[in-house]
Design goal:
With 158 residues, this protein is an all-beta fold. It contains no helices and 20 strands.
């Protein structure tokens, strides 16, 4: 299901692939190819029964993989790239962008307003607290929160 005002750009090297029963909320944006580069982006894979909430942004110039049964709450931002800026003698815009793929494992909940930066892998069964900024990998079955996001506890299973 794709709600009104969602934007999905399909131009990408590996395509945009949705599993069964995926939902995309109103105002969500999926952009594999940016406005600031002529290069075509990599694309997106979303597993079965996952949901991309209203007003989410998925910048999949670098590939983004979202597992099955994942919930991205409203306003989540995921970036599969990053701007280069090390050369202070050149403009940031002229230094380009590097692809940094993102992987979100199965059965995750990324709460409202969170940001996942390029190059991050989030394990299976992870909960990311509202407004968090995920800047490093998260292992399976943890709860992480904050800016930068840190593991605050494990999800105990028997």
């Amino acid at each position: 299901m794709i709600e009104d005002y969602a934007e999905i750009q399909g131009l990408s090297t590996s395509g945009i692939h949705f599993g069964a029963e995926v939902s995309i909320g109103s105002g969500a944006q999926i952009r594999p190819t940016g406005y600031y580069s002529t290069d075509v982006g990599d694309g997106l894979v979303v597993g079965d029964r996952s949901s991309i909430g209203p007003n989410c942004f998925l910048g999949c110039w670098g590939h983004i993989t979202i597992g099955s049964d994942v919930m991205l709450a409203p306003g989540v931002r995921v970036f599969g790239d990053t701007h280069e800026f090390d050369d202070a003698g050149s403009t940031i815009k002229s230094q380009g962008v590097s692809k940094r793929p993102v992987v979100i494992g199965d059965d995750c909940w990324v709460a409202s307003g969170s940001t996942i930066v390029g190059g991050v892998t989030i394990g299976r069964g992870v909960v990311v607290g509202a407004g968090s900024v995920v800047t490093r990998d998260l292992p399976d079955f943890v709860v992480a929160a904050g800016n930068p996001a840190r593991v605050v506890r494990e999800r105990v299973t028997d």
